[in-house]
UniProtKB/TrEMBL annotation, chain A:
It comes from the Bacteria. NCBIfam families: PRK06289.1 (NF004936). Signal peptide: none annotated. InterPro entries: Thiolase, Thiolase-like, Thiolase_C_2, Thiolase_N. This is Thiolase domain-containing protein. GO terms for molecular function: acetyl-CoA C-acyltransferase activity. Residues 5-201 form the Thiolase N-terminal domain. Residues 296-421 form the Thiolase C-terminal domain.
From TrEMBL, chain B:
Residues 6-181 form the 3-hydroxyacyl-CoA dehydrogenase NAD binding domain. It comes from the Bacteria. Keywords: Oxidoreductase. It comes from Leptospira brenneri. One of its GO terms (biological process) is fatty acid metabolic process. InterPro entries: 3-OHacyl-CoA_DH_NAD-bd (IPR006176), 3HC_DH_C (IPR006108), 6-PGluconate_DH-like_C_sf (IPR008927), NAD(P)-bd_dom_sf (IPR036291). One of its GO terms (molecular function) is NAD+ binding. This is 3-hydroxyacyl-CoA dehydrogenase family protein. Residues 185-283 form the 3-hydroxyacyl-CoA dehydrogenase C-terminal domain.
Length: 421, 436
C-alpha cells in the first residue's frame, strides 16, 4: 500500500487560542485552518473546483462531540460554509471519540487506495472551551460506556486511566516510586518538547520534573487515583488539516510545485483494532497476556506488518498521551521496550527529544493540547513535518519514518499509521 | 547562555515583584532573595509568587529579607539583581547606590520601569556596573503577559545584551523585544499615544456618547480585547498621567500634542477617581441592594455618571460579524467603506496606530518586529504590521492614512506590494487578537 497514498502537508490552529473568548466559533476555526492548510500546501480553491468537476476530491471531518459542545451536528457538510469551491464535494463527519481524527484519516486513505478520489482533505476539529471543565468532563464520559463508567462521576477519564496506572503497577510488580517517577518524566518530556512548538497549548506554561513529582495539594491536584493534573493532557479548542493524495495526483502536484515525488511522504502502514469498551472488560481480558492493552499492541503489529517495517525502522513516534499512563503503556506496544520494562526506556532517555526513539517531539497531547476530534489529524501532520524535515525547532534529526498511535476511549478504538519516504 | 543561579528581587511584595520572582524561581530554577521593607512583607511576596505560577516547588528556594538587614549580602551573592521599587528617581537612585557598592563584577542589575531613563539610572554604577545595567520591563501579571522589553543604553556591551536576551527568552520564556532608552520605550509609547488621543476624542464627541462611544468604536473588531479607555481605567488614571506626561515632556515627534493629558482626566485624578482600583474613574460599577451590578460612565460635560449606553452602529455590527466568521479582510473592507463620523474615527485611529508604530522604528527599536511584538505580547493588540496585511497591503493602508491626514511612515512607503508585511509568523497569530 505504500505506493498508494501520499501526504502533501497541512496546518493546525494555535492550540492556545480560546475561540469562544475571541467571539468566534468552530466554523471560524474550520475556515482559518483550511485556508491556512491550502495556502501552505499550495493548492487553491480553484484547483479544488477543477478536481470536483471530475469527482476527484472529497473531505473527511473528524469530530467527536459538536452536538454537545457547540450544539451542532452534521459537521461534514460544514466545509461548504468555508468556501463555495466546496459545494458538491463529497464530505462527511467521522466519529470515534478521541480517535475521530484517525477514523477520518482511515476513511480518506481507504478511498484513495480504492482509487475513488485523488485528493482527500482531512480536517479534525473540536471546540471545547464553550463549557466549564466539569460539564466538559461529563461530555467526554460518553467516550466510555457512559451508564457504567461515567454517569455521576466527576472527570471519568482521569479515573479510568488512573486505573490503568494501578493495573500496570500491580501486574508488573513495579516499585511505586520508580513507576511514578517514570510517569513524571513522561510529563516533563512532553511539556519540554511543547516549548519548542509554536502552536502548543502549554508553550508558555510552567512545568518541570520537580513540579510533576510534587503530586497532591492545590497546585497539582489528584484527579484520578494516582494521577494528578500534571499527568493529564488538557482539553482545548483546535483544528488540524492534512491533505492526502493518490500517486497520480502527487506526480502532478510534485511537477507543479517543483518537488520530487520521492520527497513526498507516503502512508506505509496502518492498523485499526477495537478493544472491549469498558476498562474492566479490557483488564479481565488481558489477564495472562504480556500486554495490559493487547489490542493496542496488535494494532501496532498490524501496522508494522503492512508497512513491512519494525520498531528499528521508526525514527519518531507521536502517541496518544491523554494521560501519562497511556504513554507509558504505548512504549512497549511500540516495541521500544518489553512490557513491564517501560520505565527503563524512560530512565535511559530513549524516548526523550534527543533519545534513540523520541516520542512526541511536538509535545503530544499533554504539551500540544487535546482538542479531541483534531488530535489524530494533528499527529499525522506532525509526522509529515518530521519526515519532511519541516518541524522547525522540534525537528528530530534525520527522521525518515514516523508512527502515530491515536486511541479513543480507554484504549478502546486503536489506530496506528506509519508515514515515511 | 548566561547562567543565573541566584537572583535578588527588590520590591518583592508588589504585584510585579512577586509575579516576576515567581517566573524566575519557577522557569529559571533560581534561588531568589525576596527583599521588601520588612520580612513580613517579603513573606507575603513569596506566597503571592507561589500563587502566581501555581507551584509549591519554588517556596523552598525563596528567601525573605529586608532592605535594611539583607540587601548587601543578597546582592553580593547574586548573578542578577532585579529592582522593582517605586517608579521614581528619588526612590530608585539611593537603592542603586547601595546595590552598586555590594555587587560583584559581572552581576546584572536591571530595573522594571515604564519610562525612567535607564542611562540615568545606570550612572550610579562603575564601568562594569553600567555595562551590566538594563531595563527589563515585564508586564503585569508576568506569568500571563510574557512580554519583556529589554531596554539598553549606550554603556551596554552587545555580548552581555545578547546573553541576557537569550536567558530571558529561552529560560524564562519571555517574548523579548529590544528597545532603546527612550521615554516609555516601545509598548507604552504606542499604547498610551492611542489611549490618550482617544481620550481627547471622547471629549470632542462628548455630546455623541463620549467615553462609551469611543470605546465602542475602538472595540474588539479593531484588534483589542478591551477598549482603550477601559484600559486606561484598568491601569489607573494616575499611572496613565505619569506615562503620558513623561512622553510629552521628553519627546518631540509628530504626535507630540496628542500626549497632553485631557483636562477631565486631571479633574478625576484630583477627585481621587483613579479608575477601577479606586472604585471608579472613567467608569464605575454600582452594586445594588438586590445584588445586581450596573455600569456607569463619566459624563465629561456634566461631571456626573450616566448609565453605560448601548450603541447600534451598523458598520460595527457588520464588521464584528465578519470577525466572528474569521473573515478579517472582509471586516476591514467594511471599515474602509463605511460612512459616518464613527467610521471616520475608526479609520483615523487605525491609521494613527499603524503610522505611529512604524514611525518609531529607527528611534525606539531597530525593526518593526519589535514594535509588533511589544503591542501583540504586551497589550494584546493586533500588531501594526498585521493590520497592514488585513487592510489589503501597503498601498491600501497608505490610502487610508492619506484620507485621514495621518503621516505615512517611510517603512510603509518603501514596502513591497504583494508580499506579507507581518513577519512574526507563528510566533503570534494576529487573528487571535481580533474579537467578534
Amino acid at each position: 500500500m505504500s505506493e498508494k497514498v501520499f501526504v502533501l502537508g497541512g496546518e493546525q490552529t494555535d492550540f492556545q487560542r480560546n475561540w469562544t473568548k475571541e467571539g468566534k466559533t468552530f466554523m471560524s476555526m474550520m475556515r482559518e485552518v483550511l485556508d491556512d492548510a491550502l495556502e501552505k500546501v499550495g493548492i487553491s480553491y480553484d484547483e479544488i473546483k477543477r478536481l470536483n468537476k471530475e469527482n476527484r476530491v472529497a473531505v473527511f471531518v473528524g469530530n467527536f462531540d459538536a452536538e454537545q459542545y457547540a450544539n451542532q451536528g452534521h459537521l461534514g457538510a460544514f466545509l461548504t460554509e468555508v468556501n463555495p469551491a466546496l459545494f458538491g464535494v463529497p464530505g462527511a463527519r467521522y466519529e470515534a471519540a478521541c480517535a475521530s481524527g484517525s477514523v477520518a484519516l482511515d476513511a480518506a486513505i481507504t478511498h484513495i487506495r480504492a482509487e475513488d478520489y485523488d485528493l482527500a482533505i482531512v480536517l479534525g476539529v473540536e471546540v471545547m472551551k464553550t463549557v466549564s471543565s466539569s460539564v466538559g468532563g461529563d461530555f467526554l464520559g460518553t467516550a466510555a460506556y457512559y451508564d457504567k463508567e461515567a454517569k455521576g462521576v466527576q472527570f471519568p477519564f482521569p479515573k479510568l486511566f488512573g486505573k490503568l496506572a494501578d493495573v500496570i503497577l500491580e501486574r508488573y510488580e513495579l516499585k511505586e516510586e520508580r513507576f511514578m517517577d517514570a510517569l513524571a518524566e513522561i510529563s516533563r518530556i512532553n511539556y519540554a518538547n511543547a516549548k519548542r512548538n509554536p502552536k502548543a497549548q502549554t508553550r508558555t506554561w510552567f512545568m518541570n520534573k520537580e513540579h510533576a513529582m510534587a503530586r497532591g495539594g492545590d497546585n497539582n491536584m489528584a484527579v484520578g487515583g494516582r494521577l494528578c493534573i500534571t499527568d493529564c493532557s488538557q482539553v482545548t479548542d483546535g483544528a488540524a488539516v492534512t491533505i492526502l493524495a493518490s500517486k497520480d495526483y502527487t506526480k502532478e502536484y510534485a511537477k507543479k510545485t517543483g518537488r520530487k515525488v520521492d520527497d513526498i511522504p507516503r502512508v506505509k502502514g496502518w492498523g485499526h483494532r477495537v478493544a472491549p469498551i469498558t476498562f474492566e472488560a479490557k483488564k479481565n481480558e488481558s489477564v495472562g497476556d504480556k500486554y495490559i492493552l493487547p489490542w493496542t499492541r496488535q494494532t501496532v503489529k498490524d501496522a508494522y506488518k503492512r508497512a513491512d517495517l519494525d520498531v528499528k525502522n521508526i525514527d519518531v513516534f507521536e502517541t496518544h498521551d491523554c494521560f501519562t499512563s497511556s504513554e507509558y503503556a504505548a512504549i512497549s506496544a511500540f516495541g521500544i521496550s518489553e512490557p513491564g520494562k517501560e520505565h527503563i526506556a524512560i530512565e535511559e532517555g530513549t524516548i526523550d527529544f534527543g533519545g534513540k526513539k523520541p516520542i512526541n517531539p511536538s509535545g503530544g497531547l499533554i504539551g500540544v493540547g487535546h482538542p479531541v476530534g483534531a488530535s489524530g489529524v494533528r499527529m499525522m501532520l506532525d509526522l509529515y513535518k518530521q519526515v519532511t524535515n519541516t518541524a522547525g525547532d522540534y525537528q528530530v534529526k534525520g527522521a525518515k519514518n514516523g508512527l502515530m498511535l491515536n486511541i479513543g476511549g480507554s484504549a478502546t478504538t486503536n489506530f496506528v499509521f506509519i508515514l515515511g519516504k | 547562555m548566561r547562567e543565573i543561579k541566584t537572583v535578588t528581587i527588590l520590591g518583592a511584595n508588589g504585584a510585579m515583584g512577586s509575579g516576576s520572582a515567581g517566573v524566575i524561581a519557577a522557569f529559571g530554577g533560581a534561588k531568589v532573595y525576596m527583599l521588601a521593607r520588612d520580612v513580613e512583607k517579603a513573606k507575603q511576596g513569596i506566597e503571592a509568587a507561589v500563587a502566581s505560577v501555581k507551584t509549591d516547588t519554588i517556596r523552598a528556594r525563596m528567601i525573605p529579607g529586608s532592605y535594611d538587614a539583607d540587601l548587601e549580602k543578597a546582592v553580593a551573592e547574586s548573578d542578577w539583581v532585579f529592582e522593582l521599587v517605586a517608579e521614581s528617581y528619588e526612590v530608585k537612585e539611593p537603592i542603586n547606590t547601595r546595590i552598586a557598592k555590594a555587587r560583584r563584577p559581572g552581576t546584572i542589575v536591571s530595573t522594571v520601569s515604564s519610562g525612567l531613563s535607564i542611562g540615568r539610572l545606570a550612572k550610579a554604577y562603575d564601568e562594569d556596573g553600567q555595562k551590566h545595567y538594563y531595563g527589563t520591563h515585564f508586564f503585569n501579571p508576568p506569568y500571563k503577559m510574557i512580554l519583556c522589553e529589554l531596554v539598553t543604553h549606550s554603556g551596554n556591551d552587545k555580548k552581555v545584551t545578547q546573553a541576557l536576551g537569550e536567558y530571558l527568552d529561552k529560560v524564562l520564556g519571555r517574548a523579548v523585544v529590544y528597545t532603546n532608552d527612550t521615554p516609555a520605550f516601545a509598548g507604552n509609547r504606542i499604547g498610551f499615544q492611542l489611549m490618550n488621543e482617544v481620550a481627547h476624542f471622547a471629549e470632542k464627541y462628548a455630546d455623541k456618547g463620549g467615553i462609551a462611544l469611543l470605546d465602542e468604536i475602538m472595540s474588539g473588531y479593531t484588534g483589542r480585547a478591551m477598549g482603550p479607555l477601559a484600559t486606561a481605567d484598568f491601569v489607573g488614571l494616575d499611572v496613565h498621567k505619569a506615562i503620558v506626561d513623561n512622553i510629552y515632556d521628553n519627546t518631540k515627534d509628530e504626535a507630540h500634542e496628542t500626549f497632553k493629558l485631557p483636562g477631565y482626566f486631571q479633574k478625576l485624578i484630583d477627585a481621587g477617581k483613579l479608575g477601577m482600583k479606586s472604585g471608579g474613574g472613567l467608569t464605575k460599577v454600582v452594586k445594588h441592594a438586590d445584588g445586581k451590578r450596573e455600569k456607569f460612565v463619566y459624563n465629561i460635560k456634566t461631571g456626573e455618571y450616566d448609565p453605560y449606553p448601548k450603541f447600534d452602529i451598523p458598520f460595527i455590527k457588520e464588521a464584528r460579524q465578519k470577525i466572528k466568521d474569521s473573515d478579517y479582510k472582509g471586516a476591514m473592507d467594511v471599515v474602509k467603506k463605511a460612512s459616518g463620523v464613527e467610521a471616520d474615527i475608526a479609520r483615523y485611529f487605525i491609521s494613527r496606530y499603524i503610522s505611529y508604530s512604524l514611525s518609531l522604528v529607527g528611534e525606539v527599536v531597530d525593526t518593526k518586529e519589535n514594535t509588533d511584538g511589544a503591542m501583540g505580547f504586551g497589550f494584546n493588540w493586533v500588531p501594526a504590521s498585521a493590520f497592514v496585511d488585513f487592510l489589503g497591503g501597503p498601498k491600501e493602508t497608505i490610502k487610508l492614512m492619506e484620507a485621514s491626514k495621518i503621516p505615512v511612515p517611510k517603512l510603509l512607503k518603501d514596502a513591497k506590494e504583494g508580499k506579507k508585511f507581518y513577519e512574526l509568523g507563528d510566533k503570534l497569530d494576529a487573528r487571535s487578537l481580533f474579537k467578534g
